[in-house]
Amino acid sequence: MRRTLTPYDQIPNFIADKTGPFNILIPCSLVAALLAFVWIGIKTPAGVIIFCLLYGFFSGTFVSLSPTVTVTLCPSLGVFGVRMGMLLVPTAIGLLIGNPIAGAILRNGWPALQAFCGVTVALATGFMIAARIAKCGWDLNNVKA
Fold first, then answer.
1. 33-42: pLDDT as tens digits
2. What is the pLDDT at residue 1?
3. Cα–Cα distance between 26 and 18 in angstroms, integer?
4. Which DSSP symbol is given to 7?
5. Longest CA–CA separation in the chain, Å
6. How many Cα atoms within 13 Å fall on the side-chain side of residue 79?
């Protein structure tokens, strides 16, 4: 899923240069969360392929814009390494405990696991919105976000 869309990972980055990384990451994350819930209803091979293309594109912003958002949140580049570590530790913990949790949820079937995916991405989007508001307030035209 990810390898097919590697060139498209650059598109949100180019747009983020003009609009701000949070202003691109949040909508793309919201679409990825919605797609994760839509995944539950997909039953055909063509639907799975379209889902993979769309989800791969929108979820690619998690990977490609996370360091940029970290720079945006840093008061100075002197603390960038510490902030990057603060970003990667929860990521590592999620990767470490995510598979056993997914295995336990899978006992209830694939739709439960797909819903878990949607809920976790939606929760992450909520945290991104909170970070953006803490940094810039409610002004949607703030390109520094």
1. 999 999 999 9
2. 52
3. 15
4. G
5. 51
6. 9
Are the C-beta atoms of residues 102 and 117 closer than 8 Å to each other? Answer: no
Which of these, 65, 84, 59, 72, lies nearest to 131 by C-alpha position?
A: 72
Query: Are the C-beta atoms of 55 and 1 separated by less than 8 Å?
Result: yes
Residue carrying the six token digits 């594109």: 57
Alpha helices in the chain (DSSP H): 10-19, 21-38, 45-73, 80-106, 110-136
User: What is the spatial distance between Cα 136 and Cα 144, in angstroms, rounded to a whole number?
Assistant: 8
At 138, give phi and psi (nearest 5°). Answer: -90, 0
CB neighbours (10 Å) of residue 76? 6
The pTM for the full model equals: 0.86
Q: Summarize pLDDT for 26-83 with one digit per residue, the tens.
A: 999 999 999 999 999 999 999 999 999 899 889 888 888 888 888 888 888 888 889 8
How many CB atoms neighbour CB 102 within 10 A? 13
